[in-house]
Amino acid sequence: MSCVSKKGAIEVKIQAIEATNNQPRKNLRVEVLKVKNPLFSMRSFILIHTLRTDDKGIISFKTNEKGNYSIRFYRDTRPAVPFYWIDTLNVKDLKEDKFFRLSW
Predict the structure, then answer these.
(1) Residue 100 DSSP symbol
(2) What is the pLDDT of residues 27-39, one digit of tens each?
(3) For residue 33, what are the CA distances in angstroms to 13, 23, 73?
(4) In angstroms, rounded to a whole number, what is the distance separating the alpha carbons of residues 93 and 24?
């Protein structure tokens, strides 16, 4: 069974929130990677988007593939080192657009 939708893409929105003051994390560079082979020892990543959070701390992208995504947030002061990431953002189905709120 394929994980790719033949119907078209859904929109995935992710909001980044500062946990201490509940404010949006603005203007962060964000990489969106598709996780292939979800078993940890065999895991590989494919970069599909490089984005920036907006004034509400939101990024959005379209996908027609369900499964795990790795979302990595970077500060401009240390562009090579992500300061927060999640490798298990799971798009379980392609029935409707998705919204995730990440707080740290």
Answers:
(1) E
(2) 999 999 999 976 7
(3) 14, 25, 12
(4) 27
Residue indicated by tokens 């020892």: 41
- The CA distance from 22 to 18, in Å, is 5
**pTM for the full predicted model:** 0.86
The secondary structure element, H or E, covering residue 40 is: none
Q: Nearest 5°: phi and psi at 52? A: -130, 140
For 44-95, give the secondary structure using H, E and C: EEEEEEEEECCCCCEEEEEECECEEEEEEEECCCCCCCCCEEEEEEEECCCC
Q: How far apart are CA 75 and CA 84, in angstroms?
A: 10
DSSP 96: S
